[in-house]
From TrEMBL:
The keyword Oxidoreductase applies. It comes from the Bacteria. It comes from Phragmitibacter flavus. The keyword Cytoplasm does not apply. Residues 25-153 form the Alcohol dehydrogenase-like N-terminal domain. Belongs to the zinc-containing alcohol dehydrogenase family. One of its GO terms (molecular function) is oxidoreductase activity. Residues 196-266 form the Alcohol dehydrogenase-like C-terminal domain. This is Glutathione-dependent formaldehyde dehydrogenase.
Length: 390
């Protein structure tokens, strides 16, 4: 089959690789019909994950049609149309039974490696390094889906792929980030990052009772989409000081809830050395713009909440514990427990409360995936979200 493979920093190619096959009785094989590129993929392309290997298949936002199921699979059969969550979860361990699927104890075959670094192992994830299981990803013609009775959600209506694809990751991720922010009726929420995740955060804030949403980015098209239909007031961080502006907009008190939908940010910052220099300057000398999380800690009102869906790949971050402690902030974060949100969010799509296709700006064949990565990473040609069609 054809698949998008990682070959090193800023080097992805479409290669011919062996078709996947059923390895465990709980597996299914799907033929991928639509598959998206995520900001998380950019962290891999930027070379932040040391446990990538030459030829690894990327992609964790796929949907498709079931081709084959293992002997133990009960809920799926060939021909079923499914969306596949990026998190792989067994469905029955201590964490899965508490709906904490991204903490699954049994789905990461390389748990020992992860444990050495983090103390405990997160769940396995599609196309996201050997530390997270070494599973082939979904930017490919076919995908092996472990624990097929637990993850994939069947789409039985005739909703098109465009409207349901983002259940695989970014709609649940935006929604969980808004939930984690602990929004109370009428709260002012500031959202850093108007990428695909930020856009779903903004929509979800309204679903959860926000009174006001302020969105921060520098990319005109993304700010414009955030502001569309009055969804958010916006701040362009190239033009305005974010702290000063947020204080002005909240009578000096700061937003009640702050959401970091950026995470490790290197895209567009040039070389890795430039990124490191920037990070050092921001952390040690305070001469550069502060990193998003530091800025959020500074801006958040006392007693407020900071929710972090943005992915951090570093293991030794210089975290400003002093201000966070003295302001009595609450932090919530994590990889999304996607499985928990599939049914309720599919219902919102079916009800017409949201049409997730609003973020798609580009559609390309899988063969053009390297160009799609360039567009998405460079935010060129108004690119906000790319969908690939194998
Ligand atoms: P993206 O790279 O397309 O968007 C990031 C946006 O942040 C860009 O528009 C960029 O211009 C903006 N930005 C950069 N620096 C900023 C700053 N200082 N202030 C404000 N905005 C700034 O990525 P995405 O697909 O939207 O993903 C966003 C983050 O969410 C990534 O870190 C990704 O890895 C993460 N993510 C997490 C989960 C999860 O389970 N928690 C799932 C999916 C994605
Ligand atoms: Zn993703």
């Amino acid at each position: 089959m054809r698949a998008l493979c990682w070959h090193g920093k800023n080097d992805v190619r479409v290669d011919s690789v062996p078709d996947p096959s059923i390895l465990d009785p709980t597996d299914a094989i799907i033929r991928v019909t639509a598959t998206a590129i995520c900001g998380s993929d950019l962290h891999l392309v930027d070379g932040y994950q040391p446990t990538m290997e030459n030829g690894d298949v990327l992609g964790h936002e796929p949907m498709g049609v079931v081709m084959e199921v293992g002997s133990a699979v009960k809920n799926l059969k060939p021909g079923d149309r499914v969306v596949v969550p990026f998190v792989i979860a067994c469905g029955c361990c201590y964490f899965c039974s508490r709906q904490l699927f991204s903490h699954c104890d049994d789905s990461n075959p390389n748990a020992e490696m992860a444990r050495k670094v983090m103390g405990q192992s997160p769940a396995g994830m599609f196309g996201y390094s050997h530390m997270l299981g070494g599973f082939a990803g979904g930017q490919a013609e076919y995908l092996r889906v472990p624990y097929a009775d637990v993850g994939p959600i069947k789409i039985e209506s005739d909703l098109p792929d465009d409207k349901v694809l983002f259940l695989s990751d970014i709609f649940p991720t935006g929604y969980m980030a808004a939930e984690n922010a602990g929004i109370e009726a009428g709260d002012t929420v500031a959202v850093w990052g108007c990428g695909p995740v930020g856009q779903f955060v903004i929509q979800s804030c309204w679903m959860l009772g926000a009174g006001r949403v302020i969105a921060i980015d520098r990319v005109a098209e993304r700010l414009q989409l955030a502001a569309d239909k009055g969804r958010a007031e916006t701040i362009n961080f190239d033009d305005e000081d974010v702290y000063d502006k947020l204080m002005e907009m909240t009578n000096g008190r700061g937003p009640d809830r702050c959401i970091d939908a950026v995470g490790t940010e290197a895209h567009g910052a040039g070389s890795m050395d430039a990124v490191i220099d920037k990070a050092k300057a921001a952390l040690m000398l305070g001469t550069d713009r502060p990193h998003v999380l530091r800025e959020a800690i500074r801006c958040c009102r006392k007693g407020g909440t900071i929710s972090v869906p943005g992915v951090y790949v570093g293991m030794l971050d210089n975290f400003p514990m002093g201000p966070a402690m003295n302001k009595g902030l609450t932090f919530r974060m994590g990889q999304t427990h996607v499985q928990k949100y599939l049914a309720p969010l599919l219902e919102k799509i079916q009800d017409g409360q949201i049409d997730p296709s609003f973020i798609i700006t580009h559609r390309l064949p899988l063969e053009d995936a390297p160009r799609a990565y360039d567009l998405f990473k460079g935010k060129d040609d108004g690119c906000i979200k790319v969908v690939l069609h194998p």
